[in-house]
Each structure stands twice: as structure tokens, then as C-alpha cells.
Design a protein that fits this description.
Length: about 425
């Protein structure tokens, strides 16, 4: 059985690695490790098909160490023991451990002393954030390097190399690839080189040659041979939460086009629930009192989106994202409640004034509950100065109004006037 093209074209040394030049380029850290033969265990973290296995294979090839590959989820401790025995007999082994975030405690405990002694150079590969998913005992003994989706230029370099390589690639086929087909292969997989290479191989091997023994790959053939990927296909992956974060921050920063871009990623992933939740939070956290009416329209748009579902939900969602981006912003509401919560959690609460305490039970009068309470509606303008905060918190201002929107400008005027009147009256009482 012949291995897939992506497997056959794995780099034999660091010079053959495409992309990830921040790690393997001249003068960069992994390149320096290999040149100095001072390898340390590492975790490579990033999306599928971006070169984690390739880098591990290239490190082994460049150093001439034995290279073994296991999966933390499916391979047992026995397979680890076999690798350990090989390392004891023949020297250092470079072990690529896929899905290292799924390494259980038994396998971890077996590996740790081997990492300490240097018998095994562990290269863990994961698509999950290692700072969240990987045990601290493993993290403390490894360096963590993030790998990024490959650029179309990186993928094109690898595809053209595979088309020319007669030993491992498709060089023994006479292939004519149109520029449109090449562009699709380089852009349709969201930086996943493995998918691009395997799509190219399927196109070449499933397309009959013409009378000149040439295999012609046009755009239609390419489209039928490759599975397109979106940048946010995994609703539970770490990258998905990065998109959600970028979505809210783009709205907060009033960048309409960026917000629409991240909305499109989330829509393509089909995660309507996350979009709705994030928009509702964003409306009240970042726009809030600067424009309460747009908060209400956000609620309405989210209800419509939820009712109609995808793909039509994209219409009200796009409208409200544009409006949120272009609205004045204020976070005074969240700042106010967080300041109040901080006082409560740090023990600043105090006794509720007797005048405000409940009086709807027998004996309340004997306890002086509700005495000296002034019912505001009995006074001009339905207001009278009296104490509401506990003694130790009198004069505290949790709400710090902002003036980006006309609505909150009006709130600020009222708040400032009432605060001054209330505290002026308190000053008379203090005297």
C-alpha cells in the first residue's frame, strides 16, 4: 500500500520545511537547536496540516536520530516502552506524540524520567491550547512553540515541489495544472498543506491523460478533488474562541469590516448560538448606556436570527453588527457593577440604614425598622434627599458616566445634579 502524497513528501531536513520560518528559518530557535545538537523536548501547537509532524520529521532527519511517531490517545503504554527500549539500546530517539493533550497520567509518569535523562526527545503535537489542556508536569519539561496556518505562497511552493519530485512525488506524471486550479489548491484548505497535497494527488491520479499523455487539471477538476475548509470549523477548538474574542474586540474597536469578517467565520462554522450570545453581551458591555436603543435592536435581531435560522440569519445579524460598530461606545455600566461587586467581595458592605429596612411584619416598629423613611412621591419632583448607602460607603460613586452618546450625556447631568444634592444634604446632617 502506497502512503498518501502528504506522507511521502514529509521534509527530510529543516531546509525542506515550508512555512514556520519563525521557528526553523536561519538563526531561529529550532534551527539553532539542530545546528548545536542541543535538542530539548517541545510542544508544537497549531491547526491541522500546518507542519507539526513535518518539523518533527525534519528535526530527526537533520540530526540523524531515530524517529518514531505515536498517538497519545490511541497508543498504549506498551508502545511507549518499546520506544524507550530502543532509546536505551541505540541512543536518543525523537518521539512525535500526536494529540499530546490526551496523554493520561500513567503514560505521563512513564515518560517524565525519560525526558529528564534526554533518552527521548519528545515533540508533542496538539491543536489545543497547551496552557489550558496539557498537564503542568509535561509543560514544565518542554518548550512550547506555536505554528501558524501556511500562506498560499507556502502551499504553492510545496505543491510545485511535489509535482516535480520523481522519487516521492508526482514527477513521473506529465501534469498540466491551470493557474486557476493551482490557486484553488493553495487557498481552499485554510492553510492545511496535508489537504492540499492529497487533493492534488487525487486530481492527478483520477484524471485520464489526453492523446499527448498529459493530465490536464482545470478548475472544475480541482474543485471536485479537494474539500474546502473554513477557518473556524471546530466549534469547540481553541481557534474558535479566538474568533469569538476577535469578533467582540472588533465591534468594541468600531472596525466594521473586521467585525463582519469574524461574523462570516462564525456563520461558516454554523455556530449561531455563539454569535447570538456574544452579540447580546457586546451590546450591553461595550455600547450600553451610550446607545440603549441599539441594545434593544440587538435583542430583536438575535431573536429574528434564532427564529429563521441559517442561512437567512446572516441578514439581521450583519445589520446589527454594522450598527453596533458605528454606535458610540460606553462601558460605564459594567464598570459600575464590577466596582460595587469588588466592594462586596472585599468586605465593604455595612449595615443597611434602618429607614430602608423591611416593615412588613409584626414587631418591625419595635426594632425601629422603616422609621424616618421619606416616601419620595410625597415630595416635589418625586425626590427628597435621604441616606440610602450604608454609613461606611456614603459618598461612594460606582457609576462614572461617559459622554460618547447623547443619552448618557443626559444621564450624566441628572446623576451629577442628584449626587451633589444628596451629598449637600448629608453635609448639613454631618455638621
Amino acid at each position: 500500500m502506497q502512503h498518501p502524497l502528504a506522507y511521502r513528501m514529509r521534509p527530510r531536513n529543516l531546509e525542506e520545511v515550508v512555512g514556520q520560518q519563525h521557528l526553523v528559518g536561519p538563526g531561529k530557535i529550532i534551527k539553532r537547536m539542530v545546528q548545536a545538537r542541543l535538542l530539548s523536548s517541545m510542544i508544537l501547537y497549531g491547526p491541522p496540516g500546518t507542519g507539526k509532524t513535518s518539523i518533527a520529521s525534519a528535526i530527526a532527519g537533520s540530526t540523524k536520530y531515530a524517529f518514531r511517531q505515536l498517538n497519545a490517545a490511541t497508543d498504549s503504554k506498551k508502545e511507549l516502552q518499546i520506544v524507550a527500549e530502543e532509546a536505551k539500546m541505540s541512543g536518543t530517539v525523537v518521539l512525535l506524540l500526536d494529540e499530546i493533550h490526551r496523554l493520561d497520567k500513567t503514560k505521563q509518569d512513564f515518560l517524565l524520567p525519560l525526558l529528564e535523562s534526554g533518552e527521548i526527545i519528545l515533540i508533542g503535537a496538539t491543536t489545543e491550547n497547551p496552557y489550558i489542556t496539557i498537564n503542568p508536569a509535561i509543560r514544565s519539561r518542554t518548550q512550547i512553540f506555536e505554528v501558524y496556518p501556511l500562506t498560499p505562497h507556502d502551499i504553492q511552493t510545496a505543491l510545485l515541489r511535489a509535482l516535480k519530485d520523481k522519487e516521492r512525488g508526482l514527477g513521473n506524471y506529465q501534469v498540466h495544472l491551470t493557474s486557476e486550479a493551482l490557486e484553488l489548491f493553495t487557498t481552499a484548505t485554510a492553510g492545511d498543506l496535508r489537504s492540499s497535497l492529497n487533493g492534488l494527488e487525487l486530481a492527478v491520479k483520477s484524471t485520464p491523460s489526453d492523446e499527448n499523455q498529459t493530465i490536464n487539471i482545470d478548475l472544475k477538476t480541482a474543485e471536485e478533488s479537494i474539500q474546502k475548509k473554513t477557518l473556524s470549523a471546530d466549534k469547540n477548538g481553541d481557534g474558535h474562541y479566538d474568533v469569538i474574542s476577535a469578533f467582540q474586540k472588533s465591534i468594541r474597536g468600531s472596525d466594521t469590516d473586521a467585525a463582519l469578517h469574524y461574523l462570516a467565520r462564525l456563520l461558516e462554522a454554523g455556530d449561531l448560538k455563539s454569535i447570538i450570545r456574544r452579540l447580546l453581551v457586546t451590546a450591553y458591555e461595550d455600547i450600553g448606556l451610550a446607545n440603549p436603543s441599539v441594545c434593544q435592536r440587538t435583542v430583536a435581531a438575535c431573536q429574528v436570527a434564532d427564529n429563521v435560522g441559517l442561512p437567512e440569519a446572516r441578514i439581521p445579524l450583519a445589520d446589527v453588527v454594522i450598527e453596533l460598530c458605528l454606535s458610540p461606545k460606553s462601558n460605564s455600566g459594567i464598570n459600575a457593577i464590577d466596582a460595587a461587586l469588588n466592594d462586596i467581595r472585599s468586605g465593604k458592605s455595612g449595615q443597611i440604614p434602618n429607614s430602608l429596612k423591611d416593615t412588613h411584619y409584626k414587631g418591625a416598629q419595635k426594632l425601629q425598622r422603616g422609621q424616618n423613611y421619606h416616601y419620595p412621591h410625597n415630595y416635589p419632583n418625586d425626590w427628597i434627599a435621604q441616606q440610602y448607602l450604608p454609613n461606611q460607603l456614603q459618598g461612594t460613586q460606582y457609576y462614572q458616566p461617559k459622554t460618547n452618546g447623547k443619552y448618557e450625556q443626559a444621564l450624566k447631568k441628572t446623576y451629577d445634579r442628584l449626587y451633589q444634592l444628596q451629598n449637600k444634604e448629608r453635609g448639613h446632617h454631618d455638621d
